[in-house]
Specification:
CATH superfamily: NAD(P)-binding Rossmann-like Domain
Number of strands: 7
Structural class: alpha/beta
Bound molecules: NADP nicotinamide-adenine-dinucleotide phosphate
Helix content: 40-55%
Strand order of the largest sheet: 3-2-1-4-5-6-7
Radius of gyration: 18 Å
Shape: globular
């Protein structure tokens, strides 16, 4: 699929990675881009970049009515970027209750699923198009420091595989993007190294052009995804070492 001439939609467009998607989509020649945020006021600085091509949409992905309203306003979309996400940085046992785990599941799993369901028929009408789901390397291996976030991304990875199979018949490309740590506010409490948000957007959009289904942007994601194939238990133990008070496996840190 070519990005030039596409009609794109980006959720969480005001966020760290989302705003880079908007900038790059414009540079790659989209005809129109729907930029979505929970509050349209947060989109003002984006819209002024190119008011002729940028259309602000109020969207909370956890609210089905909001998702349905967005779909009815955006009937010409050919490329959906499901970027909205949240991390509340809670352990699974250490958290005082399971509210944060539910909240992360609502945004990162159910919200993304609702978006895929609402926009699949629209993409079909336009010949298939593409969906980019922003997932995480932490969906492949749990970081116990953010254990419930990791679990929500694992659910989203599985969901992405399922919708990819279901939508193949309508010729919709479904790209799953699994970055390591990205330099945005969501990861401000997470340890380095961090990949630039612009690189995540670039790699995801290139995958659409090249019809690549699974993307691991940045050196950390590339290396860890390879280690997960060769030594999954070793990676699990390494991630466990990032819990406060734990000793990193194999180091004196
Ligand atoms: N940063 C990382 O290390 C990292 C690594 C791997 C994957 N990711 C994923 O990358 C995506 C973008 O995150 P980011 O790093 O750019 O963080 P960010 O700057 O915090 O952006 C997150 C965006 O999601 C939006 N959002 C949250 N809940 C929403 C909801 N219910 N409905 C609609 N929008 C909602 C936020 O809007 P508000 O401003 O209204 O809160 C914000 O625009 C997320 O899916 C995240 O899980 C991030």
């Amino acid at each position: 699929m070519q990005i030039s001439g596409a009609v794109a939609l980006v959720t969480g467009a005001n966020g760290g990675i989302g705003s880079h998607f908007v900038e790059q989509l414009l540079n790659l020649g989209v005809n129109k881009i729907y930029v979505c945020a929970r509050s349209v006021d947060k989109l003002n600085s984006l819209v002024i970049i190119d008011p002729n091509r940028i259309v602000p949409i109020e969207l909370d992905v956890t609210n089905l009515e909001s998702v349905t309203n967005a779909a009815s306003q955006c009937q010409d979309v050919t490329l959906v970027v499901n970027n909205a996400g949240t991390s509340l940085n809670q352990g699974l046992i250490a958290a005082s209750d399971i509210d944060s785990a539910r909240a992360e599941m609502e945004v990162n799993y159910f919200g993304m699923l609702s978006m895929c369901r609402a926009f699949a028929p629209i993409l079909k009408q336009h010949g298939g198009g593409a969906i980019i789901n922003i997932l995480s390397l932490l969906g492949k291996v749990n970081l116990p420091f953010s254990g419930s976030y990791s679990a929500s991304k694992a659910a989203a990875i599985s969901m992405t595989q399922g919708i990819r199979a279901e939508l193949a018949v309508q010729n919709t490309l479904v790209v799953g993007v699994m970055p390591g740590t990205v330099d945005t506010s969501l990861a401000k409490e997470w340890p380095d190294p961090k990949v630039a948000p612009a690189e995540v957007a670039r790699a995801a959009l290139q995958a659409v052009v090249d019809s690549i289904e699974d993307v691991y942007p940045g050196e950390q994601a590339t290396q860890v995804s390879a280690q997960l194939l060769s030594d999954p238990k070793g990676v699990e133990k390494y991630m466990a070492g990032f819990l406060p008070g734990m000793v990193l496996a194999g180091t004196n840190a």
